[in-house]
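TICKET: design request
STATUS: open
ATTACHED STRUCTURE:
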């Protein structure tokens, strides 16, 4: 009798697991925010390869990107995805209904491109749209969902970005999860990037983020980013406005996505680039560069390859940070990170200047007012400072931290908890972080 009950329970458990596995994504991927390179922001839909041979969306563009991610040291730091965005497709499906790449710009086909990216030790991503057409007017997946998922698997795709043009926003809540199930059923692990919040948000719809976190590895919440400070900071502000609702749904395997990194392009200054990198690290955002890798100047490359900032972004706890205070034109963003001990987190803290008076601004605040209350104190590292080693001394909760931030710039600090059993005694030297 007992044996029978155990067998019944085990079988029932297997059935439940199978059902849950089919119903939710649960693919074990994107346990930290994905990192890599995505074409759209820099290259858009440039298809005239005669007029723009170096900027054309063709197979050579993505092969060069793969080469450079490796040769320039990006892949060693985690930038492992090469993602093809819109405009790779032929205008029509094949005679048997399958998706096809444009034969002039992608003469070798997508499988060959995927193989090339994989030969570099990287992963391959591909764009499509949950609609009748992509945003640029190429064939979408609607009506061909199962076939297209199988095609992606046959091409050894590792990452699928699914847009939402030419579709009914009211049906996205069912359509996107359905496509995710088709991806799961192929048996090939593929990171699944959804877009339905970005489309429903602009319509004022109530978005089911619990379902989002269950069915997608990441999702775009808001407008496309443009190559400007105004666009980037607008997105950051919107994330801050929505953080009480959005942040709780982020975590290992499912992330809010504020869109691509602009660093190394035309629109952000050096200091504004550091600001984007810091805020994206605080937000646990995917780090998907969209730039011309051959033209990235060394000082911008240094930002993109800052190991300590990447470590914040990739923190294993996966807690999305928030904007916690605004004062005197300074925005303060914090994120709990490892190490964690005795109920206290370490923190990454970004001081972002929104001031327009044209001068560096000194700002003081105690750790306690930042929400850092570990009785044993903290050591501090200036993540964009010349010296990456911890500062001399221990900062107690009542210690004042002094920063000096230039307009539209950032001071980005990591505050690691101290584990000593001794009570904190402030022995830190007074200094400005800048």
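STATUS: resolved
RESOLUTION: sequence designed for all positions
ATTACHED SEQUENCE:
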């Amino acid at each position: 009798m007992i044996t029978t009950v155990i067998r019944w329970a085990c079988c029932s458990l297997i059935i439940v697991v199978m059902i849950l596995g089919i119903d939710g994504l649960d693919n074990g991927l994107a346990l930290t925010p994905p990192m890599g390179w995505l074409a759209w922001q820099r290259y858009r839909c440039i298809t005239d390869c005669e007029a723009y041979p170096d900027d054309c969306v063709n197979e050579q563009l993505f092969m060069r990107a793969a080469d450079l991610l490796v040769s320039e040291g990006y892949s060693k730091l985690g930038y492992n995805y090469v993602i093809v965005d819109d405009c790779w497709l032929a205008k029509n499906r094949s005679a048997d209904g399958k998706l096809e790449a444009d034969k002039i710009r992608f003469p070798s086909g997508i499988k060959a491109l995927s193989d090339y990216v994989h030969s570099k030790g990287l992963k391959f991503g591909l764009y499509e749209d949950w609609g009748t057409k992509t945003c640029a007017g190429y064939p979408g997946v609607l009506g061909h969902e199962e076939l297209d998922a199988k095609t992606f698997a046959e091409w050894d795709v590792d990452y699928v970005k699914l847009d939402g043009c030419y579709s009914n926003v009211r049906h996205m809540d069912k359509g996107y999860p359905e496509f995710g199930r088709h991806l799961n059923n192929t048996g090939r692990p593929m990171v699944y990037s959804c877009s339905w919040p970005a489309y429903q948000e602009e319509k004022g719809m109530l978005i089911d983020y619990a379902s989002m976190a269950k069915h997608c590895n990441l999702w775009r919440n808001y407008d496309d980013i443009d190559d400007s400070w105004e666009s980037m900071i607008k997105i950051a502000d919107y994330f801050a406005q929505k953080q009480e609702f959005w942040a709780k749904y982020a975590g290992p395997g499912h992330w809010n996505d504020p869109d691509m990194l602009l660093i190394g392009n035309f629109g952000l200054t050096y200091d504004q680039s550091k600001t984007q990198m810091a805020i994206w690290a605080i937000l646990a955002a995917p780090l998907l560069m969209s730039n011309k890798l051959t033209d990235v100047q060394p000082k911008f490359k240094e930002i993109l390859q800052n190991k300590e900032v990447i470590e914040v972004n990739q923190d294993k706890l996966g807690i999305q940070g928030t904007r916690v205070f605004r004062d005197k034109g300074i925005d303060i963003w914090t994120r709990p990170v490892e190490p964690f001990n005795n109920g206290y987190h370490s923190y990454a803290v970004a001081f972002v200047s929104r001031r327009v008076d044209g001068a560096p601004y000194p700002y003081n605040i105690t750790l306690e007012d930042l929400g850092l209350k570990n009785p044993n104190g903290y050591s501090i590292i200036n993540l964009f400072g010349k010296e990456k080693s911890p500062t001399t001394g221990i900062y107690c909760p009542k210690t004042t931290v002094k920063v000096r931030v230039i307009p539209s710039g950032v001071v980005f600090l990591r505050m690691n908890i101290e584990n000593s059993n001794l009570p904190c005694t402030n022995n830190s030297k007074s200094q400005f972080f800048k």
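CLOSING REMARK: The radius of gyration is 23 Å. Residues 49 and 293 are 19 Å apart (CA to CA).
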